[in-house]
Amino acid sequence: MCGRYELHTHPAAIALAFGLAETPALRPRYNIAPTQDVPIVRQNAAGERECVDVRWGLVPRWAKDPSIGTRMINARAETIAEKPSFKNAFRRHRCLIPADGFYEWQATPGGKQPMHIARRDGAPFGFAGLYERWLAADGAVLDTCTILTTTANDLLRPMHDRMPVIIAPESYERWLDVAHADVADLLAPYPSAALVFHPVSTRVNAVRNDDAGLIAPVDAPSTSTVPEPESPVPAEDDAEPELPLQSRLL
User: Active-site residue among 6, 104, 132, 145?
Assistant: First the structure.
């Protein structure tokens, strides 16, 4: 699954990597967490790619309360075409979520050791994402997103049985253009050989910490007690809220 990630590449390089016509207004962030605003890349009505900020934690359009977004930070790629919370977004609102790396916590004798995972070549990449627009009764608009997950590759399986779906740059167009309905082949584990990881400071466990030191390698995990990470991530990465009756009948 994916409950924390980072993005520090220069905005001009992000624009180039994701085919944006304009340079996005981004700042380096090293500890991006659920419920925060995050940048996504999507295709607008004119067929152009744009970078906009949305809240991490998808709120389906039929939801009565936006708080259910805290349970929707991830969506299992295997079930998004059928799950009521995600199937509309999968058909109509696919996006990329730019990142330079993400964090996973590996069990050690002393506790959970955070690891930083990135592309071997150091280039930024795009998580496969979905986005939705929710309208409150008073007309307020809330745009939100979720990150898709799949089974872990051989490299990451010792840390977790799930990993975020990473879209290869040559497939950005297919993923973003919803005219391409058959994209199941893109939802596979990213090749192990293309990724690397290293242990990082447990300072990343606290969301309030956000600096470049969080991605710096540290010595191998010791047997000393490692504090648990702060995380609002649910046990099930796409826990399904109860739908209103009208939605269940659709």
Answer: 104
> Each residue of 125-158: pLDDT tens digit?
999 999 999 999 899 999 999 999 999 999 999 9
**Domains of the chain from N-terminus onward:** 5-249 (3.90.1680.10)
Taking only the tens place, the pLDDT of each residue in 150-207 is 999 999 999 999 999 999 999 999 999 999 999 999 999 999 999 999 999 999 999 9
Q: Which residues contact 223 (CB under 8 A, 6 or more apart)?
A: 108, 109, 110
Q: Is 2 an annotated catalytic residue?
A: yes
3-state secondary structure of 105: strand
DSSP run (H or E) holding 18: helix 11-18
With CA atoms as reference, report the closest residue to 85 among 71, 99, 104.
71
Which of 2, 51, 95, 145 is catalytic? The answer is 2
∠ CA 127-199-75, nearest 5°, is 25
